[in-house]
Amino acid sequence: MTTFGIIGGGAWGTALAATLAGNGPVTLWAREADVVAAINSARENPQFLPGVPLPAGITATADLADIVASDIVLVVVPAQHLRATLALAALPATTPIILCAKGIEAGSHKLMLEVARDLVPNPIAVLSGPSFAHEVAAGKPCAITLASENKALGERLIAAMARPTFRLYQSDDVLGAEIGGAVKNVLAIACGVVEGAGLGLNARAALIARGFAEMTRFGVARGARAETLAGLSGLGDLVLTCSSENSRNFRLGVGLGQGRPLADLLAGPAVAEGAATAPVLVEAARAAQVDMPICAAVAALLAGAPVKETISALLARPLKAE
Ligand SMILES: NC(=O)c1ccc[n+]([C@@H]2O[C@H](COP(=O)([O-])OP(=O)(O)OC[C@H]3O[C@@H](n4cnc5c(N)ncnc54)[C@H](O)[C@@H]3O)[C@@H](O)[C@H]2O)c1
Ligand SMILES: O=P(O)(O)OC[C@H](O)CO
User: Fold this and answer.
1) Which residues are noted in the entry as NADPH-binding (predicted)?
2) 320 part of the active site
3) What is the ipTM of this complex?
4) 59, 70 in Cβ contact below 8 A?
5) Could you tell me which of 202, 240, 201, 217 has the C-alpha nearest to residue 295?
6) Which among 126, 128, 132, 243 is the best mutation to test ligand 2's pocket, defined by most ligand atoms within 8 Å of the CB?
7) Which residue segments constitute the domains of the chain, with CATH numbers given?
């Protein structure tokens, strides 16, 4: 039987714990003492995944040392905290690590695999795709990409983690899986702005299609394959998060589009990764000489640019071929 360690007791780490507990014992590390206590006593994570009953096979812990004996470790802390958290975890060098955050590190412009490679020699895979935590935890069907450069590792991880309603598709394009997940968060903010500013469904569809073109241009420039970006971890996740207020990134955009203060929108423990990713993505796109006007508009809005003028500037760009 496989044992799982999960580092990060937010919504996604908790949902993955609930799912994987069907395949083997799960040890779930959370930073918050009250989250650890609630999971172990009330079998619920009221702070990050309220209302979802958690199975007995999950043991929560506040001590990272309790994770080190696990057969497979999933790291599910937000992207900007991966480096510090993984450094503290001190995992055995042979333990397979699955990176689950969707973002790009500020400053270094590094994707999650690149951050992890700075720190550890372990076998590494990336999990990315359309997966709202509360739906996965409730056992609703979900199909998601497990990407690893090592084919045998990918097959082993998928065999250990797949569930009847949790379908893992294998890919060897780690960059593609990561870039899709990181960029879709920024585009979800853009679609939320369209919703919040009342610009209509035609505008949203245009943003999804033109945003996907930006994602593909950037991904290919960084070495990803276009077909990966057209799959679950790119287009699949883009469609999900651009069409539902269940997405924290989309909700952030709605608030921005309504003219609400950014500080209010970012208050609270839940993370909207696109807010941290947008400015980094714009810098990385400039470095790669890739044009990403929608993502640049999102970064400008997050830096305080006015909504109406930012949208007008986007629409006033020179007309060009599709
Ligand atoms: N929620 C989802 O549906 C979902 C699905 C797929 C992927 N993801 C990705 O998973 C990652 C985690 O998101 P989430 O939804 O579980 O988080 P969340 O918004 O539910 O909770 C925030 C998390 O950040 C942690 N955190 C805050 N400050 C920290 C610090 N200094 N160091 C380490 N951790 C810190 C908190 O402990 C908590 O676990 C993100 O990259 C997100 O994009 C989320
Ligand atoms: O709530 P969001 O916007 O962080 O989206 C959650 C997941 O990434 C959806 O796949």
Assistant:
1) 12, 31, 102, 133, 248, 271, 273
2) no
3) 0.99
4) no
5) 217
6) 132
7) 4-172 (3.40.50.720), 182-315 (1.10.1040.10)
List the structure tokens of 69. Answer: 């004996």
Distances (CA, A) of 162 to 166, 193, 233, 285: 6, 36, 17, 35
Mean pLDDT value across the chain: 97
3-state secondary structure of 159: helix
- pTM value is 0.98
Q: Which of 175, 181, 206 is nearest to 193 (CA)?
A: 206
Atom of ligand 2 nearest to the CA of 102: 8
192: three-class secondary structure by DSSP: helix
Six-digit token pair at 177?
A: 């899986």
- The encoded tokens of residue 310 equal 């930012």
> Is 7 near ligand 1, meaning CB less than 6 Å away?
no
Pick from 54, 52, 53, 75: nearest CA to 4: 75
Pairing state between β 58-61 and 26-29: parallel
Which residues, judged by CB distance below 6 Å to any ligand atom, belong to the binding site of ligand 2?
102, 130-132, 185, 188, 237, 240-241, 247-249, 273
Distance (Å, whole) CA 202 – CA 186: 19
Name residue 184's beta-bridge partners: none
- The residue contributing the CA closest to ligand 1 atom 42 is 101
pLDDT of residue 190: 98
